[in-house]
Design a protein that fits this description.
alpha/beta; 24 helices; binds flavin-adenine dinucleotide; Serine Threonine Protein Phosphatase 5, Tetratricopeptide repeat; globular; Rossmann fold; about 500 residues; two-stranded parallel sheet
C-alpha cells in the first residue's frame, strides 16, 4: 500500500531522445514540459541497434558527444539527461517500476528497418500497458502522407511555423548514470578533421559558412579539395538532430546577406535542405528502399553475393584507379566527402565493379559520420541505377580526376605511392597498360574501365526495355518523384507528364 502511494506521487512525462539530440525546436520536450509532471529526459543506448550492419563506432562517437552536450544543456533547463543501456522495453519496464509514466513523448524516426520495428514494438507496449506514446513529426517528413503532390505545400507550412522555444523543465530525483558503454563497435574513429557533436558546434559550422566559407559554394562543391571548406558541413548535426532543418532555414532567413555570391549560395543551400526531407520522405513512405531495389525488375541484375576481391579493393582504396582510391582513403580518415565524390564512389562500385548496392551501401554508411538512412538509401539506389526513374549516371573516374583535381594535389596527398608521377602520367593510371613505374605498392587497375562501363550500361538498359517496366516506373514517380524539375545534380525525378517523353529519349550519362 505504502509503495503504491509513493509510486503514484512520482508521475512523470518521459521524453525519449533518439536522433533528435537538441533542446530547442523540439516539440516532444516542449509539450512534455507543459504538463504538470516532472520531465524525465532519457537516451537509451540499445546494443542491438549498434550491432546492425549499418551502425559504426564513428556514429557512436558523434552521438556520445551530442549526448554530453545535451545533458549539460538540459540541466540548465531543470533536469539533466538520463542515460540508460539495454533493450528499450526493458528500460521502460524498469522505469515503470520506479515511476508512474503519464506519457512517453518522442519524435517519429525515419531510420533503418530495425528502428522501424523497435518503434512499432514501443507503440504496442504502450497500448498494452496503458502508457500513451506521443510521437511528433520530425522536420518535414510526414508519416502516412496521402499525396506527394501536396508534400511541398505541407513542408512550407511546417517550416513557416515559429521555432519552438527551449522549455523550463521540472526536475526529479533519478540517477543520471555515466554516458559510457563497453561493446565492440564496427569500424574505427575519425582521424582527420573530426566533427564534434553538439548543437553549439553545429551552429559554429553554419555561422562560418555564411560568414564567408560558403561564398564559392556552387563553384567549389564538386571538388574534394575545395568542398571541405566550401560546403556547410552541417550534415552530421542534421543527421543526429543537433539542429532542426527549420532552425537552419530560419537562420538563413534572419541573416540576409546582400553579397551576391552569398545570395546564390543560400539558394542552393536551401534546395539541398529540401532534398534532405524529400529523400527522407521516400524512405518514410517505403522502408523497403533500404533492402530492395525500388524498381523490383532490377532485383536479379547483380549477384547478391558480391565479388569479395573487388569489394575489398574498393573498400580499402586499392582499386588501381587513383582518384577513386584517393576519395575512399580520404573518406575513411575524415568521415566525410562531398556529394559528387560520394556519387562517384557508389557509381564505380555498382557499375564498373558490378557489386550489389546493399553491401557497398553499408560500407559507405559505416564510413560516413553523417549517416542518415533517409538520405543514404535513396541516394545509394539512385547512383546504382535501381530506382527505375532516374537517369543512369556512370561516373568516369579518370574524367572526374582530371576535372576535379587537374594538378593531382588530392591524389598525391591520399595516394602517396604515386607522388613521383607527372600530372599527365597520374591521370593515365588505370586507363590501360601504362608502362609507368607505378611503384610496387600501388595495385594495377582491377577492371578494364571501358568494357566494364559498356557491360553495365547494356545490362541496365536491357532491364529498362523490358515489357511493363515503364508502367511500374510511372507508379514509382507517382509515389516518390519530386514535383520539381529544377536541378541537374538532384534527382531527375520528373512529373508523370514529362516522364513518358524522357524515358523514351533518355541516354545514359557518362560523367
Ligand atoms: C551515395 C550517397 C550517399 C549519401 N549519404 C548521405 C548520408 O548518409 N547522410 C547525409 O547527410 N547525406 C548523404 N548524402 C548527401 C550529401 O552527399 C551530403 O548530405 C553532403 O555531402 C553533406 O555535406 P554538407 O553538410 O557540407 O552539405 P551541404 O552541401 O552544405 O548541404 C546542406 C545539407 O543539405 C542536405 N543535402 C546536401 N546534399 C544533399 C543531397 N544530395 N541529398 C539530400 N540531402 C542533401 C544535407 O543535410 C546537408 O547537410 C549522400 C549522397 C550520396 C551520393
Amino acid at each position: 500500500m505504502k509503495r503504491e502511494l509513493s509510486r503514484k506521487k512520482n508521475i512523470v512525462n518521459i521524453v525519449w531522445f533518439k536522433k533528435d539530440l537538441r533542446s530547442s525546436d523540439h516539440a516532444p520536450l516542449y509539450e512534455a514540459a507543459l504538463g504538470e509532471y516532472p520531465v524525465l529526459p532519457i537516451y537509451v543506448f540499445e546494443p542491438d541497434y549498434w550491432k546492425q550492419e549499418d551502425a559504426a563506432f564513428r556514429h557512436w562517437e558523434f552521438t556520445k558527444q551530442s549526448l554530453e552536450f545535451l545533458r549539460a544543456d538540459l540541466s540548465t533547463l531543470g533536469q539533466a539527461l538520463v542515460f540508460r543501456k539495454g533493450k528499450i522495453l526493458e528500460v521502460f519496464e524498469d522505469l515503470r517500476k520506479e515511476f508512474t509514466i503519464n506519457a512517453i513523448y518522442c519524435h517519429q524516426e525515419t531510420g533503418n528497418a530495425w528502428t522501424f520495428e523497435r518503434d512499432k514494438s514501443v507503440r504496442y507496449w504502450g497500448r498494452f500497458n496503458g502508457v500513451k506514446i506521443l510521437e511528433y513529426q520530425n522536420n518535414s517528413i510526414i508519416r502516412g502522407l496521402a499525396d506527394r503532390d501536396k508534400w511541398a505545400a505541407q513542408r512550407d507550412k511546417f517550416m513557416s511555423k515559429p521555432i519552438i522555444e527551449k522549455p523550463n523543465i521540472r526536475p526529479l530525483e533519478i540517477d543520471l548514470a555515466q554516458i559510457s558503454v563497453d561493446i565492440n563497435f564496427r569500424g574505427n574513429s575519425v582521424k582527420n578533421n573530426k566533427q564534434i557533436g553538439g548543437a553549439e558546434n553545429g551552429w559554429k559550422y553554419l555561422e562560418s559558412f555564411f560568414q564567408g566559407r560558403g561564398n564559392n559554394y556552387r563553384k567549389d562543391m564538386s571538388s574534394p579539395l575545395l568542398a571541405e571548406a566550401a560546403c556547410s558541413r552541417i550534415s552530421p548535426y542534421l543527421a543526429y538532430g543537433n539542429l532542426s532543418v527549420r532552425e537552419v532555414l530560419r537562420f538563413v532567413r534572419d541573416n540576409l546577406y546582400n553579397d551576391k555570391k552569398m545570395v546564390a549560395s543560400s539558394k542552393s543551400f536551401k534546395s539541398r535542405l529540401a532534398w534532405k526531407d524529400h529523400f527522407g520522405q521516400k524512405l518514410e513512405d517505403d522502408f523497403s528502399i533500404e533492402m530492395a531495389c525500388l524498381h523490383r525488375s532490377f532485383e536479379k541484375l547483380r549477384s547478391k553475393t558480391p565479388d569479395i576481391t573487388l569489394l575489398n579493393a574498393w573498400e580499402n582504396g586499392e582499386t588501381g584507379f587513383p582518384f577513386v582510391d584517393a576519395c575512399m582513403r580520404y573518406l575513411r580518415k575524415t568521415g566525410w566527402i562531398n556529394f559528387r565524390m560520394r556519387a562517384m564512389l557508389m557509381s564505380f562500385a555498382s557499375y564498373h565493379l558490378w557489386l550489389d548496392w546493399r553491401k557497398s551501401g553499408k560500407i559507405l554508411a559505416n564510413f560516413f559520420t553523417d549517416y542518415d538512412p533517409g538520405i543514404h538509401w535513396p541516394q545509394v539506389q539512385m547512383q546504382s541505377g535501381t530506382t527505375g526513374i532516374n537517369a543512369i549516371r556512370i561516373y568516369n573516374p579518370i574524367k572526374q580526376g582530371i576535372d576535379q583535381d587537374p594538378q593531382g594535389f588530392f591524389i598525391r596527398k591520399w595516394v602517396p605511392e604515386l607522388c613521383h608521377l607527372t600530372n599527365a602520367e597520374l591521370h593515365k593510371v588505370g586507363t590501360g597498360p601504362t608502362r609507368l613505374n607505378l611503384g610496387s605498392s600501388y595495385p594495377e587497375a582491377i577492371i578494364d574501365l571501358d568494357s566494364a562501363g559498356k557491360y553495365a550500361r547494356e545490362k541496365v538498359w536491357a532491364v529498362r526495355r523490358l515489357d511493363g517496366f515503364n508502367n511500374k516506373a510511372q507508379d514509382i514517380v507517382k509515389k516518390h518523384g519530386s514535383r520539381q524539375n529544377k536541378s541537374r545534380d538532384f534527382v531527375n525525378d520528373r512529373s508523370k507528364a514529362s516522364f513518358k517523353l524522357r524515358i523514351n529519349r533518355q541516354k545514359s550519362f557518362d560523367f
